Amino acid sequence: MKEKKSRYITTTLPYVNSDPHIGFAYEILRADALARYWRLTGQEVFFNTGTDEHGQKIADKADAQGSSRQAYVDHYAAEFKRLKEGLNLSYDAFIRTTDAKHKVAAQEMWRRCSDNGDIYKKKYSGLYCVGCELFYKESELLPGHICPVHTTKAQVVEEENYFFKLSNYQAYLEEYLSNEGVIEPEWGRQEAINFVKGGLEDFSISREKSRLNWGIAVPGDDDQVMYVWFDALTNYISTLGWPEDVYGNFKKFWTDGEVLQVGGKDQVRFQSVMWQAMLKSAGIKATDKIVYGGFINSGGQKMSKSLGNTISPFELTNKYGTDATRYLLLRHVHPFDDSDVTWEKLDEWYTANLVNGLGNLVARVMKMSETHLEAEDFAPLDPAMLDAPETYNLQEVVDHIWALIAKADLVIAKTEPFKLIKTEPEKAKAILSNLRSDLLHVGRLLLPLMPETSAAIRAAVRANKKPDNLFNRLKQ
Questions:
Q1: Tally of domains within the chain
Q2: Which range marks the domain in which residue 429 is found?
């Protein structure tokens, strides 16, 4: 049993300018599986997610649709909330950056950074990508001032904004990032180190309300609204009740707990540089660990909302079911590197590993067990049996479980208990008893990953009954 502690885990907040896609579905499933595992091992967990709802992109899209900004974000926030049931998620909080309590927290973060001397106002001209909601150095853009993320031309923007003195935190960030393991994988830490060592420039944290009026008001300046990133990053603590902390969640899970943020590889500068400097400025503990994942591509092309080649997680659950979708993403999306996912691959993985793999094994073993064995009292679940490594590599965990499934299949192929039962019944029953115990172990290991499948397998073993098909064959 692992040492009991308070653990906080959060996804990034998806930007609500389109429907959910499987890139975020993987991110939240990764966090969900970890949260479930930690809870099973007796740790107190606060699992956060939500939606990022301010900024230029949302204002532009709402205006183009003739919708109010609030109605626009309400619609998409509801779509992301539907993931809870669709993916069987166990999060504790769903924070929206339009929530009143979040606005209060974002303004308090501003005041604390300002009181620390880290916010000032100046006129500025720079190259701005609306898609990224970010000013870029010319050296960071492709020829012709093309954004490397969205392949659109950055706009020249000139206005008077407030700036955060990121340059004040050069030494602090170098020290923070020097701790091995503060970021996983190592390429994420090296990227952050290289960004910091390349020289930190102060970054704009507000926009003129005359140009953008969809955002949280800057304290003491009615002509400016907060830059969306400054606003959104504060969600990681506003969701815990900061700054008042009436229920003590901020102290328990952030100050005294172990903090883990999960995000995509395009988040490194925001999560590991800007946010950590903001926390330091406000006198708040740094994030303990940030885990980054790669992009999901489709047919060799990056899968993204802006390119329009996304796969909806709801399409996956409609076709394969909730637990199968959890399996497909947790096993076949690499935890740290880019992955390629197509419908053809998904069908292949589903049929080979779930229908013909786990589903077939459960059906065969439990049919023979029901016929030839008596029911047995099994010991209750021991969380130590879950033995998931603290590597944040859930693909490795699922691979381990499927190696056990393959091993059981091999035992059946070699010993043929369905034949042996006629000639050496006691030997066959001993083999079947071991296989049934192996199934129970697999069912327990699947509990944080595929909760419904885990429950069905464990119930079948305890009742000594063949369950209904766990995974239906795909219709041709």
A1: 2
A2: 343-463
